[in-house]
Amino acid sequence: MKEYYYNDNADDDAIDIIALIMAILRHWKSVFLIAILLAVGSFMFSKYMITPMYSSMSRLYVLSKTTSITNLADIQMGSSLAKDYLIVVSSRPVLDQVIVDLQLNENYATLYSKVKVTNPDNTRLLDITVTDVQPERAKAIADDIAEVAARFISEKMDQDPPSIIQYGYADGAKVSPNVMKNTVIAGFAGGVVSVAFVALFYFLNNTIDTPDDVENKLGLKTIAQIPMEHFADNESKEEKKHKKAKKGRKAEK
User: Are residues 218 and 232 in the same domain?
Assistant: First the structure.
């Protein structure tokens, strides 16, 4: 005769997940509060503690007046030169001359960290972007880099200088910090971290609070429950007996 056993552990994972979700929902106010506090803190820090940065961009065109744009070889040469000029524009001779021209109170390394030179795909353009705490200074640096680089290429590389087709703008639009982005990220991170802590405490909690905990954590079935009032009544009875006995001993003395 075959015996069949019912495996009541088949749904343990589902029960654990449900219990975890319920534990998180019980602490939703704390999770929400921490997320709001971090979002507000990030907003205040980004708004009032971080120095705003501004950028300005000038643009060079590598094809010179003597180059024929109908000649494929000339166009390919222009693309190759654009890649070479990408390095030349931010080289030390160029930036050192810019520091002298504008009388900047900074060294090459500091200025280099503010400059970004890019070559858009499939073009012979060079974009020179400068980021600074002052929009007017960012424009002045970007413009002077374009002019100095054009002269340097003509004199040192024996090439036709690239044309400056765009000077920078000082429109006052800051590029960092992104206050809204920082606020949303901080709030989301606060919520995720709070949920993670609730889950961690849930998994590390080995106390027995309910009959379900007995079954889930110990694998035992609960037969009956004794109310806490029972222990309170027994304790009060013991205290009364103790007081009566104490009074009796005093009376005998």
Answer: yes
